Amino acid sequence: MMLMSYEHHSAAESIDSFRAACADLPPIFAKASSGSATSEAQTYHQADSRRRDFTGLANFPARLIAVGDAVASFNPIYGQGLSSAALHASCLSEYLNSNPDLTTQATSYFTSLQVVVDAAWTISAGGDAARQDLLTGAEVPEPVHHQRWAMNQILQATLKDRSIAEAFVAVTRMQAHPNTLQDPALLERAVALNRPTP
């Protein structure tokens, strides 16, 4: 089980404090945390998202690339670190199989890597930014407001529709790009499902 806390709520650092936190949530959490613990509670040392953009570098050493957390690391609550690293390896394989000129910087590798990082960033850092803006009351640009509204519609509909839930899970597992959730038909279906019944 995993819990996320933010603002003034401290992380649960023991099994007892973890169970106490679960007791303040809907009953399913207390039930799920009541079994035997297989290990002590673990907290994250880096609970934020960070990225480094290599695509804009004019002079990057040849025969040198970056993968995994050296490129981007994400708030661990979203579980996208390992998936991202696997896709980084796929980008590297594609780059090396293209017989690149190894005497020049790996520009095409970093360009394809950017697609992976942007996709993961949309889900993880985007979710954190929305939560932070809500807590601080920050004004957000109109396009961001619309994107968040649409994502909220999708999230609510995942509880009512299996196909929408599967589309959302595919994105969170990085099996599909976040843009797939912007499909007008999918959003229309979600909005219809979320509309209150008369």
TrEMBL record:
Cited InterPro entries: FAD/NAD-bd_sf (IPR036188)
Check the record and name the SUPFAM superfamilies matching this protein.
Answer: FAD/NAD(P)-binding domain (SSF51905)
Question: Superkingdom, according to UniProt?
Answer: Bacteria
Q: What is this protein called?
A: FAD binding domain-containing protein
Q: What species is given as this protein's source?
A: Kribbella koreensis
